[in-house]
Amino acid sequence: CSQSASVCKGPVLFTKVEYVVFQDNPFGPNATKVTGLHVFEEHPDLKTTHWTVTIPIRQCHGDGKTFADKPMLSSGSTIGTMSDMKNYLLAMYTEMKGWMADPECQFKMEDDKAIHNYLYYSGKLDNSKSVEYRRGFIFPVGYESNIVQSENRRIFDAAHQAGASKNDVALVGTTDTTWISDKFGLTNSYGDFINLDGSRSAIVHEYNKAREAYWLWFTKKNQAMIQEK
């Protein structure tokens, strides 16, 4: 919100900053107008039948199958108007407090994703809508990043065993401006993550799971930009 605004109506972004990279301004003049609360679907292969959601919900509410096989929603990034974001955070806080007070609902793992999905698919988030995978402000890229990392790990491990620096590793299918092969369909010719329509994703969540491949490219890109200045 601008300092001159008498009332801040948003939009407001709630995210895990350490797992996010901004490729564009989600609040800029060309950004899509935000109405209500937007939650974001992850890769189509990820469903709410995953144990990270079904086990906590079934144990705490006994209804883990009530929204089985729905698209998994990312709990790491949500955007909405000021009023809808306040309602969302209050709902998350209230549900978490209830779980903390119940011995049956205390787990040795992060449970924010289970709560996030439970609230949405149980109709407890008013004025909310889910945004299809790679069609909105936020691209939850964790699933794909794990695949990329698994493929690249062998290359980096081989380089390490040969005594080579990771900075000298040339990954298959990359160019001077990219960090992964275009066979993945995740990036443009400049290495930026893109939506399904080819536009650059404004916010990328869980880019960090791509590890060395992305970090080395990102560091070199920033150094080049600094040198140009």
**Strand proportion:** 5-15%
Sum up the overall morphology in one term.
globular
- The overall strand count is 7
The number of distinct helices, counting runs of at least 4 residues, comes to 5
What is the ordering of alpha helices and beta strands? EEEHEHHEEHEH
Rg estimate, integer Å: 20 Å
With strands numbered from the N-terminus, the spatial order across the biggest sheet is 1-4-3-5
The residue fraction in helices comes out at: 25-40%
> Which whole number gives the mean pLDDT?
86
Structural class: alpha/beta
Distance between the termini: 30 Å
Largest sheet: 4 strands, mixed
Low-confidence blocks of residues: none
Structure description:
The structure is a single chain. The chain is α/β, with parallel strands linked by helices and 229 residues long. The chain has helices at residues 51-61, 82-101, 112-121, 142-161, 212-228, and strands at 12-15, 20-22, 37-41, 73-80, 128-131, 138-140, 203-205. The strands form two sheets. A four-stranded mixed β-sheet has the order 1-4-3-5, with helices on one face. Strand 6 (138-140), helix 4 and strand 7 form a beta-alpha-beta unit. Helix 1 packs across helix 3 (112-121) and helix 2 packs across helix 3. The radius of gyration is 20 Å and the shape is globular.
